[in-house]
Design a protein that fits this description.
Radius of gyration: 24 Å
Largest sheet: 2 strands, parallel
Structural class: mainly alpha
Helix content: 55-70%
Distance between the termini: 50 Å
Order of helices and strands: HHHHHEHHEHHHHHHHHHEEHH
Number of strands: 4
Number of domains: 2
Shape: globular
């Protein structure tokens, strides 16, 4: 909520910030130490008062130990914070251009690492189920990303009840369930890279100037598994390995792939290798904690397509980076 407040203040410049400033003043005695400032809020100019929200959220990000303290001090006043935000939002919506709508997108919440409590419930349960009323409390359109593992958990009915049906964003299909390359999917990944390159230099050719060949480019696309975030991470590794030298060679790409593969290898528990091998063969998953964990860590990827009858089909596969890990290859070879 503090992060939403900061972004709303930054983007709704014409809205009256007084409700939020009044809320902050009422909490300042408790929060000023968390903002790492000794100044009095009353003595600050309007812009400086607004900036204190930014300081609070910045400190939460850089100092994880502050999160618990922030929660302890904010929790009793969450309802009043939401009321203040909504007063600000309603004023801001009146001053939007005709036909415009206000939408808040809270991204990257799907990357919150699950922490299971002694009672068996996780921080995911607390955030998305227990706090659903607060997450839905803002007086505007809101979109929250959630861990895909929750969609396949026993909380799925509660999620639908609270938020309607979650919209699952599948990977781009760079392959087919039969193990063939999807030319359309690879072309889509190439287009994503091309658009990024053209922002820097529209005259560069992906297949001759940026990469030494079409084969090297397509191998990068395939190794991403159609996951755009992993595609960007791979590109960053490739650029770092290339040291600014173009075109990017097959050797440089292979080094980047090897480096990107290590975190996936380390994330797989001993008993999970067999689960991965089974999914590789069946292209389906079981609705249990083991499969949910592998979905959360992106070791397993979900793909969706529409068949000739227009029916939606879902299938799963092992991340291409894992397919090159020795433990996985030995299981597949022995099966």
């Amino acid at each position: 909520m503090l992060a939403c407040t900061r972004h709303l203040l930054e983007h709704l410049k014409k809205a009256n910030p007084q409700p939020l400033l009044d809320w902050l003043k009422g909490r300042w005695a408790d929060l000023k130490d968390l903002a790492t400032t000794e100044i009095s809020l009353e003595s600050l100019a309007l812009e400086s008062q607004i900036s204190q929200y930014a300081k609070l959220t910045a400190n939460i990000r850089t100092e994880p130990t502050l999160r618990k303290k922030i929660r302890e001090k904010i929790n009793p006043y969450t309802e009043s914070l939401i009321d203040a935000i909504n007063t600000f939002i309603r004023d801001g919506k009146k001053k939007l251009e005709s036909g415009s709508e206000l939408v808040i997108i809270a991204d990257s919440l799907d990357r919150i690492v699950p922490i299971v409590q002694p009672d068996g419930r996780s921080n995911h349960d607390e955030i998305f189920i227990d706090r659903s009323a607060q997450l839905k409390g803002l007086d505007c359109h809101t979109i929250y990303t959630i861990p895909i593992s929750m969609v396949y958990s026993n909380h799925a009915p509660n999620l639908k009840l609270e938020y309607d049906d979650p919209q699952v964003l599948p990977m781009i299909m760079v392959g087919t369930p039969e193990g063939e390359v999807s030319e359309l999917g690879v072309a889509t990944i190439r287009e994503i890279i091309d658009r990024r390159v053209r922002e820097v230099n529209p005259d560069l050719s992906l297949e001759t100037d940026v990469f030494e060949s079409r084969e090297v480019l397509d191998r990068l696309c395939l190794m991403s598994g159609g996951h755009v975030r992993d595609l960007m991470l791979l590109m960053q590794n490739v650029i770092k390995r290339a040291g600014g030298q173009l075109p990017i060679s097959a050797k440089v790409l292979q080094r980047a792939i090897t480096e990107a593969r290590l975190p996936y290898k380390r994330s797989v528990e001993k008993e999970e290798w067999q689960i991965l091998a089974d999914v590789f063969g069946s292209k389906s998953i079981d609705n249990d904690q083991g499969h949910r964990n592998l979905l959360f860590s992106r070791c397993l990827l979900e793909y969706i397509y529409f068949d000739e009858e227009g029916e939606k089909q879902t299938w799963y596969d092992v991340h291409p980076l894992i397919k090159g890990v020795r433990e996985f290859k030995e299981l597949i070879k022995g099966s």
